Structure formats: structure tokens, C-alpha cells
Amino acid sequence: MKTTITLNAIALAIALGLTSCGKQTGTSQAERTANAVASYVAPGEKDEYYLFYSGGHSGQVFVAGIPSLRHISTIPVFAPYPGTGYGFDEESKKMLGDFTWGDVHHPALSQTNSKYDGRWLFVNDVANNRIARIDLRDFKTHQILGPIPNSMGNHGSSFVTENTEYILCATRFSVPLPKGRVADPKDYEKEFNGMVSGIKVDPQTGEMKVGWQILTPPFDWDLGSTGKGPSSGWAFWTNYNTAMAHDVLEVNATQKDRDLCAVVNWRAAEKAVADGKAQIMDGVPIIDPAKVPRVLYFIPIGKSPHGMDTDPTGKWIVAGGKLQPATTVLNFEKVQAAINNKTFEGEFRGVPILKYEAVVEGEVPVGLGPLHTQFDGRGFAYTSMFIDSCIVKWKMPPWSDEEKRDLTKAVLDKVQTHFSTGHLVVGGSDTAHPYGKWCVAMNKLSAGRHINVGPAEPESSQLLDITGNKMKMVAEAYTEPEPHFAQILKVSEIQPNEIYPKDENKNPNAVWDKDSTSVIRTGNQVVAKLTAIRSRYTPDRIDAQLGDDLIVHVTNIEQTRDMIHGFGLAEHNVNFTIEPGETKTLNIKLTKPGVFPFYCTNFCSALHQEMQGYLVVWKPGEGPSGASGGAGATGGGK
Ligand SMILES: [Cu+2]
User: Residue 207: which residues within 8 A CB-CB, separation 6 or more?
Assistant: First the structure.
């Protein structure tokens, strides 16, 4: 009987594709202890690295620690977050505009000289064609740019150049341009276009604006990376729809043996715009690569590719081919030579196609479903395998003659992941200076490796120690939906602010003492300026009339770290937190009479519960003279 059950379990495991990888039953007690010690951060101790996960369609960014993989905080970006009141106060509502969600895909840390400089984290929104900038001084979103004109499906993004001159983006979707023009999808090839965008970043403030764009055929650009060293000034993208299918893409976009990847000379694009070679569409200078040579080239690449990663030396570009069992390594020196010698195998819509054999260094047979590749800076690459569910370690060129003859010899190690790894990240892989210590596999399926939480299962992440010859998986964790990529930053490389200093608060509505607080009614508008400090609001009463516009500015006058106050207003769908030294504003129309408490929503002291006040909304003809339309202020401020 027992034997039968065991055999059935094995058959089931095989059917589920869990053959070699069940629950690490193979790990010995000694290995488990070693893994636990490697990822253990004892109470009171701190992680060595930040892990910034993209939150996919949650619209957020999650911050975890490495090696513990503990979730530490959430940075709201494209979606409201009641935990901080993001999207509820006027300042963040304005940033979100009309959107209440986004699809966060590929975070990118700012760089100086191809090294993380710890200033900003940029993230893209695929759905609404936006880019956001998070400032690492306060771990908050400070700018959302977009929707970007002439750009639909901002997926091939956000790729930062070596000195954060630009964030480079390419479109996953194509539409008739400019946006708003309508054409039948049946006329896709003729009427639809994709776009590469150069988002210019102000070197002092980080402020982003659309610099220029390059028109492309209606290919579905997927993922990319920027060049460095010898490939400085260049960028690369894969695409999975060279067939230019507009329906049933699953079948129609996978007909060709190879797709075309893009090689973009962004410095040449910048110069072409400066030289007046662009035409303006929807306010943006657009370069047509058929008319402006040396800006865009194509290279045939393995069918239905995904990742396109430049290594830390800038010499090699690795493409993952979802539907081919190998990664393709391009040699940038050969790319340059092919361009200079015009070693083309044709052109597409006036854009030269470089001859594949002239630019490829080799195809490394890593296994099934290679997606993304990361680098450790020691000459090794790590590729996530979606179908094989593993991470493969392989040797980058230069290869020996023996390896060149048989590139299976370049494949050095495989570690099973659980399951279907999409992205993976090695700290600093996209810079010239990788940390090369940890790799995080971001798995699409967790397949019951956690306590049961119902039909939907969380995303899983697994931490691999990559310092030895063999990779070692030491820990796993679960996240909210849905990490698509992440960045790793050494904790010691940044010094976030502890408070917002009073003298840096330039908000004209900030008030810092009792005598400056006020509630003033002018016409049908009531403006209240409040202070918040442990544990009271001043004033703690606001009177207004039904139908008034109410504007409340709350300044948290604390200058002590983590002394946060909240402002929640009952039955008005408003709540936000105010951090030490911050001023936040709410603006609502008062549509119902009554007395509505406002109270501190973020625990602040033993007398936190006592931190409350009243908004009194009088009916017409009622209330004190001030509230009923007189000039005077009401409220308990003075
Ligand atoms: Cu409080």
C-alpha cells in the first residue's frame, strides 16, 4: 500500500514537471544549517544590500533586504497606497493624474561612470506609458512623466545610460501615430508604428523630459540594455514580432526563424536632433531612420527573444531566445566592424540588417527557455531558464578553441529553481562594477511551496550565493504581484534623510507655530493651516458650510525621525501621513452636513488615540458667523 502511494506521488511529480526539484529534500542537515547561516540576519542586525523589486500590476516598488529577503517597505509609485496616503493628498494625486494603477516592470538605478550613484531609481509603467523617478534620499516617488507622446506599451524600459544622461525606452505595442489617429488594425504594417524614446534626465535634479524619439517598424520591442566601454553611446533591444502580426500573435508572430533586434546609436540620434534632422510629432523631435542613417541597425536573433543584456565590459551583448535552446552572444567590436564595412544582409524599411554570422560570437546551449542574463564581473554569466526552471551559469567569451568547437563546455553549472524563473538579478550587473555576490531568481510560479492562501499563490524569489564555482540556493521568500525585475544596491552606498529639515520646506502653506495656524473662509472656500505634533492638531476644529471647498494644509512640525502623524477624515475617503517636516494638502468639496472627526492614523505616542479634531459642516443659515459666510475665521487655533 505504502509503495503504491509513493509511486503515485512520483508519477504526479513527473507530470507536474517537479522531477528533480521538489522541496530540496536532498539537502542534508549540514547544508540546511550552512544555508540558514548564509541568509540569516539576526534580530538587531541589518541586511547588506537593498533589493528593489518592481511590483508589476500592483503599481508599486517593494524594498527587501539581502540576504534575508525580508520585505522592509513599499514605495507607492503608480497606484494609491493608503499606508502613506499616496494618491490621497493633493501633491501625489496630481502626480498620478487620472490613473490609479500602473504596470511596473524594470527598475533602473541611476549611474555615474557606469556605477550606481545611489541617487535615483527609475521605473516604467507599461500600461500607461510612463516613467517615474524615486529619490533615494527619502525613498519616495518625486516625478511621474507621461503618458509619453507617440509611445504605446512602455515595456522596453527603463534603461539608464552610463551617466544617467537618458532613460531609454522602446514600445511593446504599436499604434497609429500620433496617438488619437485611428486606423484599422488590418492595415497594421502600413499604418502602425513603434518608437524608441530618449528621456532626458537633468543631472542636478533628476527631472525627466522627453528628449527625442526614433520611429521604428511596428515590431514588438521587448527588453534592452545600454552600452558601456566600447559600446558607450549605444543601446540594444530585442523584439518578438518581426512578422508584424496584429492578431493571434501566439501563432502569427512566431513564424520566422529569427527576429530582428535593434542596435541604436543614441549619441547619433541626439546629434541628428541637434542638427535639425528631426521632425516634430506631438511636440517631440522624431527621427526617421530611413532618412537619417547611422542611428538604427537591425541584427537577426534567435526566435522570440526576450532579454538583451550588455556585459560589464561593454563588449558582449547576450540575447535570450525564449523559443531556442541557446543564448546568443554578440560581439560589439564585430558589430562596429560590420557597420563600418557595410557587412549587411539586406535592409528593412531603409534600415540596414547586419549579417548575423559577421557579428555573432557564439550560441551557448544553456537549455530550454533562456530569458535574461546577468553578469558577476568575473567573466561569468547567469541565465534564467523559464521552461527548464533553473539558473544556468556559463562562461563568457573569450573562449578557448576547444570551447568554441563545443560551447556546451562553456556551460558550468545549473541550479533548479521553483518554478519558471522569469527575471533574475545580480547586483550591479548592468554597470561596469557588479557586486557579484548574490543572485535573486524571480519565479513566476510558487506551486504550493508556502502555506496555503487560497487559489492564487504568491510570487516566489530565491536567493543564490554565486561566489563559489557552483551556485548555491540558500533562501526563498514570497512577494506581492509581480516582480519583473529588480535592482540590488549596497546599503553602505547611500545615506537616506532621517527627516525633512524645516529650513528646506519651501511649501508656502507650511506653518510651524500656533500663531501662524489659521482657518479662513473666503467666499465658498475654507482654507485651514494646521500643525501636527505629538499628540495634537492645532487648531483641532474646522468650521465650514455645506457646499464649501475645503483645503487643509497640515505641517508635521516634528524634527525627530519616524515621528509620523496621519490625517484621516471620517466618511470623506481621505487619509494621508505627514512625515517630520513635511506639509501635505487635502482639497475636497463638502457635500454633506454633519460633524466629522479627523484623527491621527499613524501611531505617534502614548496619547496617539487622543490626537483628533472635528470638522463641523453647517447647513445653510446655521452655525457661527464665520462659518455662515462672515469674514472671520473659525476653529480653535488661537
Ligand atoms: Cu499623531
Answer: 143, 201
- Spacing, Cα 107 to ligand 1 middle (Å): 33
- For 403, phi and psi rounded to 5 degrees? -65, -40
CA of 573 to the centre of ligand 1 (A): 19
pLDDT in tens, 87-104: 999 999 999 999 999 999
| CA 68 vs CA 23, 442, 553: distances in Å | 20, 15, 40
Quote the ligand 1 centre to 88 CA distance (angstroms): 18
* Strands 574-578 vs 565-569: parallel, antiparallel or unpaired: antiparallel
144: CA distance to ligand 1 center in Å? 29
What does the alpha-carbon distance between residue 335 and residue 344 come to, in Å, rounded to a whole number? 11
CA–centroid distance, residue 607 to ligand 1 (Å):
8
Q: How much is the pLDDT for 435?
A: 97
**Bridge-partner residues for 17, per DSSP?**
none
Measured between alpha carbons, how far is 567 from 529 in angstroms, rounded to an integer?
Answer: 13
**CB 116 within 8 Å of CB 491:** no
Distance CA 528, CA 636 (A): 11
Interval between CA 532 and ligand 1 midpoint (Å): 7
What CA–CA distance (Å, rounded) separates 221 from 106?
14
Alpha carbon of 65 to ligand 1 centroid (Å): 28
Q: pLDDT tier at 14 (50, 70, 90 boundaries)? A: very low
79 CA distance to ligand 1 middle (Å):
25
| Cell numbers at 515, concatenated | 500663531
pLDDT of residue 304: 84
Q: Which residues are near ligand 1, the ion (C-beta closer than 5 Å)?
A: 565, 600, 604, 611
What is the spatial distance between Cα 361 and Cα 384, in angstroms, rounded to a whole number?
A: 20
Name residues whose C-beta falls within 8 Å of residue 90's C-beta, 6 or more positions apart in sequence: 584, 585, 586, 587
**Residue 107: φ, ψ to 5°:** -70, 145
Phi, psi of 359 (to 5 degrees): -120, -10
Name the nearest CA neighbour of 60 among 115, 120, 19, 105.
105
Residue closest to 117 by CA, chosen among 125, 109, 107, 106: 109
620 CA distance to ligand 1 middle (Å) = 33
Q: How far is the CA of 432 from the centre of ligand 1 (A)?
A: 46
pLDDT reported for residue 23? 41
Give the C-alpha separation, 313 to 316, whole Å.
7
Alpha helix positions (H), 170-242: 188-191
pLDDT bucket at 258, cuts 50 / 70 / 90 = confident
Q: How far apart are CA 21 and CA 23, in angstroms?
A: 6
Question: pLDDT, tens digit, for every residue of 469-489?
Answer: 999 999 999 999 999 999 999
Residues 334-357: what's their mean pLDDT?
Answer: 97
Residue found under cell 525633512: 500
- Does residue 88 contact residue 37 with C-beta atoms inside 8 Å? no
CA of 608 to the centre of ligand 1 (A): 5
- Listed in sequence order, the residues at least 6 apart from 450 whose beta carbon sits closer than 8 Å to its beta carbon are 457, 458, 460, 478
CB 594 within 8 A of CB 480: no
Question: Contact 474/38 with Cβ under 8 angstroms?
Answer: yes
